[in-house]
Amino acid sequence: MTRSVLAAGAASVLLLAAGCGGSGPETTTNADGEELDRVTLTLNWYPYGEHAPFYYGKQQGIYEEHGIDLRIRAGQGSQKTVQATAAEQTDFGWADTPALLAGVDQGLDVRSIGVFLQTTPSSVQFFSESGISSVDDLKGKTIAATAGDALSATFPAFLEANGLSESDVRVQNTDAAGKMAAVMSGQTDALLGYATDQGPTMQEESGKEVDYLRFAEHGLNFFSNGLLTSQSMLDEHGDLVRRMTEATSEAWTATREAGDEAVAAMEGASEQLPSEKVLSEQLAATLELLHTDATEGQRPGVNAEQDWAETIQVFADAGMVENPEQPSAYWENVLAAQE
Fold first, then answer.
1. What confidence tens digit (pLDDT) does each residue in 74-106 have?
2. Residue 64, Cβ neighbours under 10 Å: how many?
3. DSSP collapsed to 3 states, 248-287
4. Angle made by CA atoms 127, 49, 110, in degrees to the nearest 5
5. pTM of this prediction?
6. Range of the structural domain that residue 146 is part of
7. Of 190, 217, 244, which residue constitutes the final position of a domain?
8. Dihedral through CA 187, CA 193, CA 194, CA 199, nearest 10?
9. C-alpha–C-alpha distance, residues 293 and 238, integer Å
10. 80, CA 20 to 30 Å: which among 88, 110, 111, 265?
């Protein structure tokens, strides 16, 4: 199903990405007369708290120190961002690893250059008053989900890991924007979403406390969002790719120390920007996801090959990857691990 969604979205990607990049970076000059590479980064969605490190890194001059004039663009879903990046319609993308895996499986020439969210924020989200406190409590419940996305594809594995089957719950398919409305209106008991995204927004809008059953805390972890680029960019502008990856890692490191200052850097990023309170909650939840046991103590964006292999296997088992390959088919190891 994801493969067909990827194909169907190809035409709209051209509209999304128009003007966001090209065959190679143009240059600009900063106030000190230094030449910078003008780089476009297309996000996975409209800006929310998870994206604060990019805005903070730009504000603090981290990207400029690496010779980059960063231009950040809103996205319309990870699948479209992967397609736009592969087509060189944006220089870099920020997207979910399952979408990248599916894209490569379909023949897109795109590579991850570092997954930053190495613990999945995937979760079942619900109001605390719902009476749900364990996975077993999901029996007989109705869950809002979006057909074809990574959450829906892995939900059966999440249930199985916790002794339930797909028949124990009812999944009600809706578009990504409609999931919160379905829960808040009482049409569904819960939704499948990222704990770094919908939950804080739903809590603020409803005035009710939101709780989570996180996949990673219940037997199922896999890679989430990271930085990606086209194979052509890697081949033709390898030094720029390295500088972009290094700058992004530094920006995430700086954000961990900055707190609300990083959130403030997002002011004016989008007309749809969440409130500062929600942004802070989203960012705090995101910063808990930067490592696995294999990468604890490393700088953000350093990946372990075994974690890649495990993620690939999860999505091969889920049917999102028909021809699984070695990690090197999906990931260029740009950031060296620190000794």
1. 999 999 999 999 999 999 999 999 999 999 999
2. 18
3. HHHHHHHHHHHCHHHHHCCCCCCCCCCCHHHHHHHHHHHH
4. 110
5. 0.90
6. 122-217
7. 217
8. 0
9. 29
10. 265
